[in-house]
């Protein structure tokens, strides 16, 4: 093979993927490991990579204990009800008790955080959100990571984790290729922190053709966080918990600031409030414990995001769509109008472009909303990811095996989308998780746990062959046809992605079936994914760019398989509005108040599914509720 | 709105190629100038637009839902620490500019080099504290929240 092999040996900490989680890990690792070798591998350029590449207009996770605003347990309770109980409360509490120190450092680094001029505290958008001028959020945190890392390998797409050959179930690094030069990179490392991303584009998007890039989560979020870890044999949790977003139509511009700060609200096509009329039936599905509008009204206990989605989906299905965001009142205030536009320019410019293109002035008309195709990720209002250890002082035995944020593979840590059961971390929480993982990884190394890792030349050669196989396959069969993309021997990456999206949409509960699936559909979907896996062995890449896309779709495929396995396992409808199990349309706390945990055997490809117990934080609030 | 590149402005410097998170800005081999090779994987994140020294890159709304005839232009200035936007509607009735800060400090100056700060003590290593903690949690002398300090327990079972 013509491409060079470049080996980076004796790494202590390899950060695989440097969005907010990875940059946090690289930054913090330097403090606890001042003499350690810290390397970043990132498939794009860390100055603009990951979900925050475009910027953000808010930090959605900030306690404000400094200003007496919230305690960590308040945030845990919020995430708990929002995710219908299914969260890892040890990990959430841990993230929440540290996240403010992350945000305070961001401010010191130059991130413009808005202040409430009268009170002096950060300007609140909502109870957990603070407003920032975050166009350069990512370049700023990337600067911090660069100052800490020994070397940053930009444009190196990590395809596989390397497993140790001296000790079973221990990580020894990763491999990947440079998307510009084609060099094959081998990173031999004592610990790996997986900071790769969740998955957009595994379910068919609403947009067609050119607009397919306008997905809610970044199109470069290829589910690599999950595929890398699943392929290595790590246990995963809550992978069924995909998320559907209610957003401005087509542009998928964010609604958080609109609801919370600008005080806009929704109504149906005929100007009516529609949510409350769906609540009685919905309450029968999920139980009063999860949906009690009266209590929510009195106590500000939020109505879970999925349930609000459900009312919107139901209203549209009843023929009273589209749903509108009522902006015409708020936008009469020129200050609020300006914030509305800044909000888009800071994080979803495309929505501003769309309104400019369609002459939508929210001062004069109420823009349309829609519900998106599903996404698989673990840092927004959902918690897909690896089954990780919590910290020693918080976690019950079932949740603790030595090192904070370590997966079930020794030496493999996670941050951001990679960690399961920790929704509502967002940008600041993901960075914080990276920091927690980095400290634990340094300790893991200092404890001698990574001593004697070994990777053979044979393994490296085998992986190199596998990584470049799509290009070899292309070369072999390309000239059998005159021209074009139709070849009996292979599919190209785009064709493979289209196939995956159609399959996931129709069998896994995508947008064209109104988020509905059942045991039969899921079983067929899994069968078809298995056959697709055979064809992915024959995927063809014309050049290095297509090789990147080939590996992205392979990663998306593996993540999808795990999603369907989990969805099939959880025989209930836990999150109406995210997806529905037609064969089990009710929430079932008796059998399913548990976390789902899977493991794919790397040898056989078979999945083992299990239930893990849910532990909740119990304090005065819970005791008072129980006493009622 | 996928990006496109004006032929007469691009000088082929490759800044956009270097920054694009989606790896879709490439140099055309015939013209030696940049172009978007895969519009349906473009997130309209504007990273390339902001990085272009020639202002050669612009965007045109996605063909499947955005009508022609609009404009969103941007000028990001790291030295001044600001970003300026200008939005023009298709019907010409709205044409406005917005300005926002992107940093409060000269680039990189507020970020510590952790190799050079005093290293952690054994006590810090054995604690649950991160760099700069507990100080930075509340910017006072308070400690880290624990189950005990907050009167909490972890209990198995159902809670809402």
Biggest sheet character of chain A: 7 strands, mixed
What's the mean pLDDT score of chain A?
A: 96
Determine the N-to-C terminus distance of chain A.
Answer: 71 Å
Number of domains of chain B: 2
Number of helices of chain B: 4
- Overall geometry of chain A comes to globular
Tell me what portion of residues of chain B adopts beta-strand conformation.
15-25%
Radius of gyration of chain A: 23 Å
CATH superfamily of the domain at 246-371 in chain A: Succinate dehydrogenase/fumarate reductase flavoprotein, catalytic domain
At CATH's second level, what is the architecture of the domain at 246-371 in chain A?
A: Alpha-Beta Complex
For the record, the CATH class of the largest domain in chain B is Alpha Beta
The CATH architecture category of the largest domain in chain B equals 2-Layer Sandwich
Q: Can you give the mean pLDDT of chain B?
A: 96
**β-strand number of chain A:** 20
Number of strands of chain B: 8
> Helices and strands of chain B, in N-to-C order?
EHEEHEEEEHHE
Unreliable parts of chain B? none
CATH topology of the domain at 246-371 in chain A: Flavocytochrome C3, Chain A, domain 1
What structural class do you assign from the helix and strand content of chain B?
alpha+beta
Rg of chain B is 24 Å
